[in-house]
Design brief:
- The complex is a heterodimer of chains A (209) and B (532).
- Chain A has 209 residues and is an all-alpha fold.
- Chain A has one domain (6-182).
- In chain A, 77% of the residues lie in helices and 0% in strands.
- Chain A has 8 helices and no strands.
- The longest helix of chain A is centred in the C-terminal third of the chain and has 48 residues, at 161-208.
- Chain A starts with 5 loop residues before the first helix and ends with a helix.
- Chain B is α+β, with helices and mostly antiparallel strands.
- Chain B has a domain at 456-532.
- Chain B has helices spanning 2-12, 50-53, 207-218, 221-226, 370-383, 391-400, 405-418, 421-430, 434-531; strands spanning 27-29, 35-37, 42-49, 61-66, 71-76, 81-86, 92-96, 98-100, 106-108, 112-117, 124-128, 133-137, 143-148, 163-168, 174-178, 185-188, 194-198, 237-241, 244-248, 259-262, 283-285, 290-292, 296-301, 307-311, 316-320, 326-330, 332-333, 339-340, 343-349, 352-357, 362-368.
- A 4-stranded antiparallel sheet of chain B has the order 3-31-30-29. Chain B has a 4-stranded antiparallel sheet with strand order 4-5-6-7, with no helix packed on it. Chain B has a 4-stranded antiparallel sheet with strand order 10-11-12-13, with no helix packed on it.
- In chain B, β30 and β31 form a beta hairpin.
- The relative contact order of chain B is 0.08.
- Classes of the chains: A mainly alpha (209), B alpha+beta (532).
């Protein structure tokens, strides 16, 4: 019963929003490699969405290309979600390990990524009047992913419905706190760097004189 | 570098001496609102002072007006006179400093600020500021009537009446911009009776003003009276073009309503168009350590409908077409010809622009360049709807300035109209205009489908049949594999069964052997017994 290959498990999880992740948990299945691949695809999807979108739907600012926002939008955001969820749910009697949270959440992102790629192709075929199709696909894909993500968190921690919502809200709060600390830390590092570089410049001038 | 190229071109081709003589870098804005180098549309030809005209130096001239008789009027404020000059700016036609009142007495001007000459009745309307009146006179200096501070409930009598600018519409209504009045221009009917205010600016809803609104809800009346009130900045100047009055507002804080196009009812047609006049990104002046926010001090509508606005802070003239697309940026703050100290007023005549500087006491004359001529021609055709006729001028513009975005839009529109969708797509991409691209793409897609529909259907059928075939094949293979697996299982099961039977048989035989042994023993015992 349910002897599936890792790739087949992905399919099973995506097509069975309610039971899929439960089955996966039951069979202790899921591959970290595939999870990372999915996050990488998300990263590519974000870039493609920003740069290769059909011209009739808007112009991308193409004078410069900065990859940092795309990394933040995909990889950093996902990492913050996983770490945030893990830290919150460890305190809330969640059963999921960091590895499982990462795998299940990544699997849940698939409809969203697929939606981006489908819309990317459609944006080169459709005109503005037909943008409603793109909107519909976007809503379906995002909604599907949201349901999957909910189901994933519910299964991985073996939570009830209400507790899952609670955990997700707390996770988002945790993500904000983490990002805030990160920004704080970065600006601090910057200050320290400026301080050190100023001292270095000062000393180097003195030595020269 | 500019100077260098000017010298070079000047030394080789004498006719090009004025090609790059501006004391500033000519620029324009791209789609992203970023300044990019461009070709000059206007070039400063010369400056004219009062000495050049033989009437003594101007002193703080504040306004200039070009009338229907081909005459320029320069309002020489501190000399209390108005100079009428011919259109070539080499001969003074008349200097108005004394006027004859209807009763025969003489009257003189005191700090006049503005002038308007009506094409309908040939009257001069003079904003005689310190005399607190608007003088209406014929061109021989005979005063027809004067407009003074109105006695009306609408006009607060505590306020002064200091006319700054004046215009009159076709019907003879007179509009007067007043100093320190923020409720718009005062409007008078042809009989000189005050009829109300016209075209007040809106208050910009900044955070501070919204905050003040809520504070005002809770504080007492006495306190409220002492607080700064939220009033919009008053109109600075205006110009009339047919049925529309264009106003501009010079303010360092206000960014809405800096330029308005008002209809007869006083409604602003530009109100909801999200337009921006002056520099998009305010220039930062390192020598003064301050940001030079645009402050538009005068506006002029050219005969071809182009809108010229004069920015006081940067000394730049921004020229827009009638749809408010930026065409050219000219001028700067500088001592050289083409630069201003204190730009005060702007007027246009045909291809030329005239700017009055109230500090340099001169009039600077700008002439249209070849590039400007082509752009104007193309813009006029384009705005009139003659897209295809505008195509050649636009191509010519692109030859001279490959950064000129309007030209790409023009070419893309023209090609779209012609039905050359692919070309239109190419140029609309270069113009960064998704709107035109969308239309061009729609046509392109339609043509593509029409041409390739049969072929595409064929491809589709082939693909589907191949897929179906592969699927069937796979299914067959799967079934075969399944069957083989089942067979194997069966085989295994048979083997298993055989093995089990064998094992059972073996156990049985072993058991029987044991039995035999036991029997043997018994037998042997028996034997023994027997033998015994």
């Amino acid at each position: 019963m349910m002897d599936l290959k890792p790739a087949e498990w992905v399919r099973h999880a995506v097509y069975h929003p309610v039971e899929g992740f439960e089955d996966m948990r039951w069979k202790k299945s899921g591959s970290l490699k595939i999870a990372f691949l999915i996050v990488f695809l998300l990263f590519l999807a974000q870039i493609a969405d920003g740069r290769l979108y059909g011209f009739q739907f808007g112009v991308a600012y193409d004078k410069t290309f900065n990859i940092i926002p795309y990394i933040v939008q995909s990889i950093v955001l996902f990492a913050a979600w996983v770490v945030g969820n893990w830290s919150v749910c460890t305190l809330l009697d969640g059963e999921g390990t960091m590895k499982n949270i990462c795998i299940y959440s990544a699997y849940a992102l698939i409809p969203y990524i697929v939606q981006i790629f489908i819309n990317l192709i459609l944006s080169h075929i459709l005109i503005r009047d037909e943008a409603v199709f793109i909107q519909a696909i976007s809503i379906i894909g995002t909604g599907w992913s949201a349901i999957l993500l909910f189901s994933a968190i519910k299964s991985v921690h073996q939570y009830s419905f209400g507790k899952t919502i609670f955990a997700i809200i707390l996770t988002i709060a945790a993500m904000f706190i983490m990002l805030f600390l990160l920004v704080l830390f970065m600006s601090l590092i910057q200050q320290v760097y400026i301080f050190i570089s100023t001292i270095y410049t000062e000393i180097s001038y003195r030595i020269r004189v | 570098m500019l100077v260098c190229s000017c010298v070079l071109s000047g030394s080789f081709v004498t006719s090009l001496t004025a090609s790059a003589g501006e004391p500033y870098d000519v620029y324009n804005y791209d789609r992203w609102g970023e300044a990019i180098p461009s070709q000059a549309g206007y070039i400063a030809e010369r400056t004219v002072s009062g000495y050049d005209l033989g009437i003594g130096a101007f002193d703080t001239p504040n306004d200039i007006f070009y009338d229907h008789n081909d005459i320029f009027y320069i309002v020489d404020t501190n000399n209390n006179r108005i100079a009428a000059v011919n259109s070539d700016f080499d001969k003074v036609i008349e200097v108005y400093d004394k006027f004859t009142m209807p009763d025969g007495s003489k009257t003189s001007l005191k700090k006049p600020m503005g002038i308007y000459v009506s094409a309908e009745n040939d009257y001069m309307y003079i904003a005689d500021s310190e005399n607190s009146r608007v003088l209406i006179s014929d061109r021989d200096g005979n005063v027809i009537s004067e407009i003074t501070k109105p006695v009306s409930d609408v006009y607060d009598q505590k306020r002064t009446f200091l006319p700054q600018r004046v215009i009159a519409d076709k019907a003879g209504n007179v509009y007067v911009v007043l100093n320190n009045i923020t409720t718009g221009a005062a409007m008078f009917n042809p009989q000189g009776e005050f009829t109300g205010f016209y075209g007040a600016n809106r208050v910009q809803p900044t955070a501070e003003i919204i905050g003040n609104y809520f504070t005002n809800l809770f504080i007492s009346e006495e306190k409220k009276a002492r607080r700064a009130r939220n009033v919009p900045t008053g109109i600075t100047s205006f110009d009339i073009d047919g049925d529309f009055i264009f106003t501009c507002t010079q303010s360092s804080t206000q960014t809405t309503d800096t330029v308005k196009k008002l209809n007869a009812a006083g409604n602003n047609i530009f109100a909801n168009m999200e337009l921006s006049f002056g520099d998009y990104t305010p220039m930062y002046d390192t020598s003064q350590n301050k940001i030079l926010k645009p402050a538009i001090c005068d506006i002029d509508i050219a005969e071809d409908g182009n809108i010229n606005v004069l920015d006081f802070t940067t000394g730049r003239i921004f020229q827009y077409d009638e749809d408010c697309n930026l065409l050219f940026i000219t001028g700067t703050i500088a001592k050289q010809v083409g630069g201003f100290d204190h730009a005060a007023a702007l007027e246009s005549r045909g291809d030329n622009l005239y700017v009055v500087d109230s500090q340099k006491d001169t009039v600077t004359i700008f002439a249209e360049t070849d590039f400007g001529k082509i752009v104007h021609e193309a813009t006029a055709l384009h705005n009139a709807g003659y897209y295809e006729e505008a195509l050649d001028p636009w191509y010519e513009v692109l030859k001279r300035d490959g950064n000129y975005r309007r030209a790409y839009i023009g070419v893309a529109s023209a090609l779209l109209r012609k039905g050359d969708y692919e070309g239109s797509m190419k140029y609309s991409k270069l113009a960064d205009s998704p709107k035109i691209y969308n239309k061009a793409f729609e046509g392109y897609r339609m043509n593509y489908l029409k041409k390739n529909f049969g072929f595409m259907v064929l491809i589709l059928i082939v693909i589907i049949s191949v897929l179906v075939y592969i699927r069937k094949k796979l299914e067959k293979r799967r079934l075969a594999a399944e069957k083989a697996r089942l067979d194997e299982q069966d085989q295994l099961a048979i083997l298993d069964r055989q093995r089990r039977i064998l094992e059972e048989a073996k156990i049985l035989t072993e058991n029987s052997n044991n039995d035999d042994e036991e029997n043997g023993e018994e037998e042997s015992g028996y034997d023994g017994f027997k033998t015994r």
